[in-house]
Amino acid sequence: MTDSKYVYSFGGGSAEGRSDMKNLLGGKGANLAEMANLGIPVPAGYTLTTEVCTYFYDHDETYPESLQAEADEALAKVEEIMGTRFGDPDDPLLLSVRSGARSSMPGMMETVLNVGLCSATIPGLIKKTGNPRFVYDAYRRLIMMYSDVVMEKAAGVEPAEGQGIRQQLDRMLEEVKESEGYASDADISADDLKSLAESFKAKIKEVLGKDFPDDPHEQLWGGVGAVFSSWNGKRAVSYRRIEGIPDDWGTAVNVQAMVFGNMGDDSATGVAFTRNPATGDNRFYGEWLPNAQGEDVVAGIRTPNPLNEDTKNEQNEHLPSLQVAMPEVYEQLFAIRNQLEEHYTDMQDIEFTIQDGRLWMLQTRVGKRTGTAALNMAMDMLADGLIDSRTAVRRLKPEQLDELLHPIVDPAAEKTADLIAKGLPAGPGGASGQIVFSADDAVQWVKSGKTVLLVREETNPEDVEGMRAAVGILTGRGGMTSHAALVARGWGKCCIVGAGALDIDVVGKTISVDGKVFNEGDVLTLNGTRGLVYSGELDMVDATENPRFVDFMKLADELRVLKVRTNAETPDDAAIAIEFGAEGIGLFRTEHMFYGTGSEEPLFILRKMIMSGSEEARRAALDELYPFVKRDMKATLEIMGDRPVTFRLLDPPLHEFVPQSADERRELAEALRVSVEDLDRRADELHELNPMMGHRGVRLGVTFPEISEMQFRAILEAAAELRQKGKACFPEIMVPVTCAKAELDDQLKLAKAVHAEVCEKYGVDEVEHLYGTMIEIPRAALTADEIAKSTQFFSFGTNDLTQMTFGFSRDDIGGFLPDYLDKKILPVDPFQVLDRDSVGVLVQTGIEKGRSTRPNLKVGICGEHGGEPNSVEFCHLVGMDYVSCSPYRVPIARLAAAHAQINHPRD
Ligand code: ADP
Ligand code: MG
Ligand code: MG
Fold first, then answer.
1. What pTM was estimated for this model as a whole?
2. Concatenated DSSP letters for 690-706?
3. What is the CB < 6 Å shell around ligand 1?
4. Which of 322-326, 362-366, 480-484, 660-664 has the lowest mean pLDDT?
5. How many CA atoms, within 13 angstroms, populate the side-chain half-sphere of residue 210?
6. How many CB atoms within 10 Å of residue 493?
């Protein structure tokens, strides 16, 4: 332990760290080091490693012994490079204390700026700069941040809603602005700021019962401790849960010399992206504010200026761009933009500050982007030779495809819609919902089954759970780099920011615009791609085909080995799935022809069959049903052509189809020529206490062989007829809910007999097909070596397998799952993400045992997991041949399969 190095220095053209040391230095620290090494101007500083954080939490919130000495040494280096000393009354160095986790958590953790200002150093700094206004502005910011971050949040004080110390101080600031008639923060005079600082300190003493520290070192270590504490702050924890970031990673702390964007009109601060993060256009894109500091841009306090001509929009076109206001600095920044892109070969999100005309870089990281932007950037960079095709394929997360295929507002509906405001297009796609005005309401309303849009003046990190719950986000203030925009873009969520025309009253829960008032619960529609807000609900349509998407998917297909099929039971769904690139049907659920439109007639006949008391009556009903079943199967086989189609025999318990209403029963009794009483008695017989484990799947075929026979005949005759016409087709017969080899033998005997009859009828030797089973009961997985003797393929039905492995009812898990996730009893919903530790072991065992008997056993999956990227990776790892998922998830599975092969190559 003692030889651990806990502190890494950077600045003055070199650094001890590098960009590949993110685990140790956090993303921010590693990239500050990298920039320093590249010779880019970065204010000097040092990073306390994530190991300090781990130590801190393992040792009762204390530091390693050697830390103080290492930090002192690093601070001395900073002082040397910057030529000023921390706490020096004549020429004080000021510091920022910044958090920095391994992967960026925008705004989730804390930053304190201007550390080191106190009664001893203020006069010296005023004398040195000749700018008292600047000094008192910096001081009031320090007091605001420090009291909030260190004295309240890190101290565990939980103020009432709206009564946080920061909010109270903010209100005092607003009061001064109002009473003096100042339009913006920049107008407040030095004297006002000076007396404000004094009232701030009195307020802090009154509210928090403690004095604001007047000692630079106390401020510094208070800030460091608060950043470490913020790792376990409420919003950081909930953000980590949403993003799946492990709790034990810890954060680093960066202590860095301050540079000042608030020293006057030659000073500024800004945020930029090396390419447009919404569209992917290869143009420098950003926002800046003159005479401002720190988070003013991101916080959405005032509408920021455009960085350049490319960044102008309706909200900011009247404001001067940096390109025009400070052309030389802009050129320098542009050169750094190019240098960073070439170095990192990816789009960067950068923060910079200009002090007295001198440019300083404060941060660079890989920028979050929409799915569309990710696609365009990947394909552009590939074309420019900046990256190779594997890298291009990795640049889109499979989940992001979801967003590319997401609905947009129907342009036809938009033409006649009632446009109420315009804002900035911060997150893509369209969304309609009832408006709510707080994150908590969003969460509550969604829990009660509503679809909501979250409306805020601006969002802050405390709102993330509500932002997540809402289908769309609308804010009145803020720019394209505001918190709401950043977070929404990262999630690919529909979002409009800075819709300034809206008068949003979050307390009264109303939006007023042009004399109209919208109340909580009213419905609005957002076009996040164009920044348009409409009243009422508008239709949505699927995003149009993007040719780059097709090219991109081709690259992915070249890389993957896992095949991707779809779950579909109608020719229409099959056609959609082929468009999305499905290579077969992995699950055709025969019972689906008894649900939905056009199902009345077959359903009635099926009911007759079910309610028949005798085999003879059942056979008669099955004969009637036969043409319907064969028709659907044949049409689907035909459309799939040379792609295989797996037909699953009737799966659900029969009682699911028993008519419930008195009218329906009367009608059915008439058709069957039995009394209603008899029919009711038969329905009672079919009633089961635990139908999911009841008379279903292969069990039906065992007790009613005629039901299986009818299905075998439908499949084989459909195939025989298509082949007769010279058409290719590949049916696979799949027996569900199997738990023993003998069940399969029983059914196989029937299938063979039917096959012989069909061959004779069509005058052929064979109707080519496969015979296989679902593995969805633990016993089947555990006896797979036996089962494989009687089947040619396995398809893992991981929905039921998960249900039976956990003992969780698929249909009732909603009642307790949220508690399980909240209390971290489960990391994720096992019905969404395949549980590798349990279900995964059964799957792997099943495959190994099955292939020990039958080496060429074909293996796939047909549960919901087949379209979930993490589970697709698992299927790849255990050597499956294919996954099968719903049509809309096919592209996601294709990309996930490509990623799996890139990360874990297999034959
Ligand atoms: P976040 O992770 O929330 O982006 P940062 O550590 O980047 O937090 O700090 C927020 C803002 O504070 C930065 O965007 C920058 O404007 C300002 N800031 C941080 N460090 C300095 C510094 N050394 N000098 C001037 N401004 C700084
Ligand atoms: Mg930052
Ligand atoms: Mg099942």
1. 0.79
2. SGGGSS-THHHHHH-HH
3. 43, 96, 98, 107, 111, 113, 256-259, 269, 294-295, 351, 353, 362-363
4. 480-484
5. 14
6. 25
